[in-house]
Each structure stands twice: as C-alpha cells, then as structure tokens.
Amino acid sequence: MSPPPRPLHDVRVLDFSSGIAGAYCSKLFADAGAEVIKVETAAGDPLRRWSASGAELGADDAPFFQFLHFSKRSVVLAPAAVDEALCDADVAIEGPGPDWFDPAVAAAQHAHLVVVSISPWGRSGPWAGRPASDFTLQAESGSIGGRGVPGGEPFAIGGRTGEFLAGSYAAVAALAALRRARRSGEGEWIDLSLLETLALGTTNFLSILFQMLEMPPSLHGGGMATVETPSIEPTADGYVGFCTNARQQFADFLLLIERPELQEDEMLAQVAGRLARFDEWQGIVRAWTRAHTTAAIVERATALRIPVAPVLDGERVRDHPQVVARGVYRQAPGGGFAYPRPPYKLDGAEPAPPTPAPRLGEHGTAIAPRRRARRPIGARGVLPLAGVRILDLTTWWAGPACTQILAAFGAEVIHVESPQRPDGVRMLGGMVAGRYQRWWECSQFFLAANAGKQAVTLHLSDARGRALLGGLIARADAVVENFTPRVLDNFGVDWDFVARHNPRCLMLRMPAFGLDGPWRDAPGFAQTMEQLSGLAWVTGHRADQPRIQRGPCDPMAGMHGAFALLLALLERERSGRGMLVESTMLEAALNAAAEQVVEFTAHGRRLERMGNRAPYAAPQGLYACRPGADGLPRWLALSIETDAQWRALCAALPAMAWADDAGLARLAGRQARHDEIDARLAALFADEEQAAAVDRLIAAGVPAAAVVNPTAIHRHPQVMARGFCSAPPHPVVGAIEIPGLPFRCRTIDVRPRRAAPTLGEHNQEILRGWLGLSEAALRELEAEGVVGTRPVGL
After folding, report:
1. How do residues 261-287 score in pLDDT, each as one tens digit?
2. Measured between alpha carbons, how far is 251 from 270 in angstroms, rounded to an integer?
C-alpha cells in the first residue's frame, strides 16, 4: 500500500466562508494535504452551534461542523491583517463571509491569487445581493418546479445537497486555476452561483428538450412537476429503489414484477405514458413489490442487471455490505461520531487521516508568513489545462460531467464510443425521434454534458479497435471511464493495458460502487445513489414516501472524479509517472449525505424528510397564488431563517396582525406553530398575483421566490444576464441554449467552445491525423464496423 497522498502539501488556502459550500470546497483541499486556515470573526461560524436534529451541543462544536473542518486551522484575524495574509496564500474562499472581505479587491491586488466567491446569485447580474435561501434558490432555479406527484404540491430537495455540489464545483475550478497560477503566476477570480448550480444539477436539462420540441413554456408556467416511475416503491419491510433509464432496463423490470405481457404496451414503455396512467401503473408495481422483502427484490433485480438499491437512512446506511466492505465510515478524531472518508484513492491509497477540527481562534489572531518566490505573470488568459489530452470513455452523465469541466478549462477531450453500443445517454434522444432523423444526436443530456469535446468511435470487442485505442493512449495524458469494472476488464482495457501503452498516462476509473466489494459489478445511476445514500430519505413530503432528488449525484460524482484527476496530474508533474485513480459515485453521494450519519452516530437521532420545511427556518413552504392563464396555481416560495426576516415579513403584509403574538417572535415558537402559520399565509396569498407578491417581499428583505418552470430556466433574467447558457451551433439541432458551468471566471470564458460532437465526428481528424491511418484503411474499418458514424443496428 502506498503512503497516504498529500498532493497539495505546499498549498495554503484561506477560507473566509461560513456555511456548507465554502467549507466543503476547502475540505477537499484539506483532505489532499493543503494548509487550510479558516478565518473567522469573534462570533465564529454559525455551523459551530448547529444540529439538524436539534440536539443539545454543550460546550463542544457541532459534529457536523467538525466533519466539514477536519485538518484545518482557525484564526480570528483583524481586517487590517488580511492583505498581508493574502500575499502568502494560494487560494482564498469567500461566501458568505465577513463584510470586510472584498473578493474583487483581493483578486485585483494579488495577481497570483485564486479567489473563489460562492454566492446565491453570483457576484454579477441584476439579482446579485437579492435576499435568498437554499429553498428560494431551489424555486428560482427550476428545481422545485420539476419535482412532485402530478397534481400535488411540488417539493424541494432535502439535505442541502446543492451546497455540497456547489462546493465540489468550486474546488475543481480552484484547483484547475491553481495549476495555472503555479506555472505562470497568473491567478483567477471564480464567481460561483448557487442558483446556476441548482439549475445545472437538478433540472435534467429540460430546457434543452423543450427547445428541441419547439414548445416554449412561460418562465412561471405550471404543470411540470413529475416523479419517476418505477422508482422508490414500498416493499413488505421497507422501501426499494429502481432506475430504468434505458428501454432494456424497463423491459427487464416487467420481467421482474412478473408482467412480461406488458412489454407489448407501448404507452407504458414511455415515461409520459406511465405518468398519464399513474394510478393504474402504481397499482401494478406495488401489488408485486409489497409482496416481497427489500432484500429479495434487490437480489432478483440485480440478477436481471436492473439498477436497484435498498432505500436507506442515516441509521442503516453504515450497515450496507458494500459500504462495510469498502470501509467507508471512520470514527472522528477523538471519537464521538462516524463520518465518510473522502471518495477517491490515488494508486490505491486514501488521503491521510484527518486531524481534529479547530476550536474558534485556536491558532491565534495572526497567520505566520510563508514567503516564497512568485513566478512572473506570463501570457494572460491561457487556459489552465491547455496541452492536456484526455481520452473520455465515459457514459451517461457522471463521467461526461467530469471530463466536460476539464474541457472547459482547456483540456483536449476525445469522447470514445462504440458504433455497436454508443454512449447510453444518446438513446434518450428517442424522445424527439419524430422531429429529427438522426435522433441519437438529440439527447438533452448528451448535448449538455459533452459540449466542448471531440468524438471517435472504436469497437473494443475487435482487436483492431483495441489496438487503435492503445495508439490513442500512447498520445494521451489521461483515460477516464465510469462503467462497472467488469465492462472494460472484459475487453482487457484495464490499468495494465493503459500503463503498457503509456507509462506516463493517468487512468481515472469512476465506478458506481468501487473497484472491489460485493457490489463491485452492480450497475448504478444517480437515482441509485440517492436511494442508497439517504439523500432520498430526507426528500419528499412528510406524509408521503421518500423521493429521489433527480440528478445531483451525477455531477457530484463527476466533480469528485475531476478533482482527484487534477491531484494525480499534479503528482505526475512531480514524479513523471502515471497512476491509477479511483473515484466512486456512491462514496461521493455519501459525503453529500454525511450530516445524516453524523447526527445519528453523535446524538442517536435520525433525520427525516420535512417536505418543504427545514429545521433552520419557519415559516418555510410553498403557497399557491392566483392561478395563471393555464388554470394552474402559481407557487410562491417563502423562507424565514431569522427573527429579523420574520419581523420584515410581518411589516410587508399588513393583514398579519395576528403575527404580533410574542410566541412567534423566535424560531422555536414559529416551528411549534408552523401548521397554523401555514394556514394563515395560504389564505393571504391565495388571491395574490405571484410576481407582485414576490416583489413586495423581496423589497422588504424577505427571501421569497416564484417557482420557476424548469423547461424555461434559460429565460431567467439572472441566468441570461450572467451568460450561463450559450448556443454553439450543432449540425442536427441547430443553435439552442445549452447550460454551461455554474461559475464565471475573470480571465477566461469557460463556456463550451464547440457543440457536443456527433457520433464519430472526428474519426478522420484523429484516427488519420494522430495515428496515420490511410483513407483506405479507415474505409475498411468502417465497412467492418470497427468505426462508424451511425449506431449499428438501427
């Protein structure tokens, strides 16, 4: 076993942020060996006194705070000392943080520094500075508007997953920028928007689909809230979760529930058809699932290669056999609670064990100088990963999300598919088959997650395809794949194959469950991770069942994989040798769900779903305003996290004389009477026009939002002002708005420089140009199905 890697041992990070997103960003740096100094005011980060279960904390800092701040230092720094401290820092993270830290000034005065700003709306645009909460951002991003049982009240994601996702994106962007700063002396200002993070990670790119269908909805139109089915279903002893993204998976599901005759029902084969016959379909499924135990269903579904998982919570997830076999959970330094280890390994070695989180001001009121020679600033605007070449053997969304962000920072990414079995997510283009002849080029996921890349096809079952792949590996810096391990192993395309063709090449493997353990070869998607990790357990209405979050675990896995690969690239630049990198989808999700296990092991309390409420806010919820022209309700999202916001709400709504009750002046009193408050607010807003109500509340400083239709998020005024979407021309679908990455950079444009490639689009350019194949040889390979530009068998 290799020693614990510390690739960032010579990096200093100053973390001025409070809350989850900034803390998780700097945690990823600390895990990799960076010196992370948490800069606090005398009051300290509010998370020090936070327990989601309401547990008494005594004199100790909250366990969840400790988890986020292992291996860091805490300094209470005077504002006058900040400028000198920044001279010695490599990265500075802010948001929300002290009022006296200005990221624009820091970036302007310290040319070497990588500054990361994390804010609700981004630091630019007409809505910057607008009051917001996680809940109201979910509403404005289109996230809530796409999630709910048809005809019912939509619901939010539980567990603040969006903040973990934002922290992951921020860490990858900061590490890529740091690589350039170390080489050229030029820093960066990364301006990340939580709104854009949620729009990217939780709306399933419905805006792209509806543009292709030429069905432009209004931004605030209703009627898009849906749930996946089959998904989480009740069993004889709990819940089980399925995923049937592919047509074959659905056909196999019908075999599982012993209804093979339904394979002839084309309406049920379509998601829209199952939703149209929701009650009938649910009855069919649950008549079977309720007759079997969760364990029996998991065993039978696994045999059929259907992605499946038990639906677990913070109490039970530690006992899952894959989690146990992989040793995911560890005891905190000093004991007291369990936490998940970082979700990656470099050459088989985990990051070094953490040290305890710091007490407030434990490391004094000053930061020791660390003078180092700075490189002169070279050519401005050079992309951080320019010159890095990556072979992308990934599929669906998690793997492509990983390589997409690397392409955005300048890596040359070549997406490799088989003409016999193209990237599985391409097949979702069948939803628009009636409009586009080459429908396999029209999947909204493929168009979004593969923008900025090139593409070749190689049939790896053929020795000639493997030989060509070997030739590409010899000219690459990294190979990335996210299949179950058995897939590429069966082709012989494993780490030995890569190292044999190029000893300097890195290989990132991103399996759903890991390279070992009893679930090693089980298929898994984002839905599976949400079901197993506990994220689904805390999502959904209180009186309903657990519900999946619909997407964020894919880019979450992608960002952890990208971060690990960048660490390996830094190590390779020091050692000159390649290495195997493992980053697992499940373990990334378990880190995002860490609060549940931390709370249960520390306090014996299981976190539960709360619908549209939250333990840190009251009132919080959706309130139906006057219906729109379509006859559907227009939902207003409201979130009161502080007593000052409650007073502002009362002042903004004169009809709230009842709110003068002293028992409602504090959060605990409002939580105890939340049902009563909800009923009164529902009556107040029922005849209000949504936009006018939101404007009035925002003007009073109250976090409020309209529930946005996810199919039209590209029309949101803040999104448009910040250039979140771009429209690179595509040969099949034309120029349509594609969401980019959830941050802007000061010196470079990270939006895709080209549209997603068509199948095998660059076969000529790469196979002939790089490998020297003749035109005749390429035509022969195409005739024999080794390469191609059209899926075989259509």
Report:
1. 999 998 998 888 898 899 999 999 999
2. 11
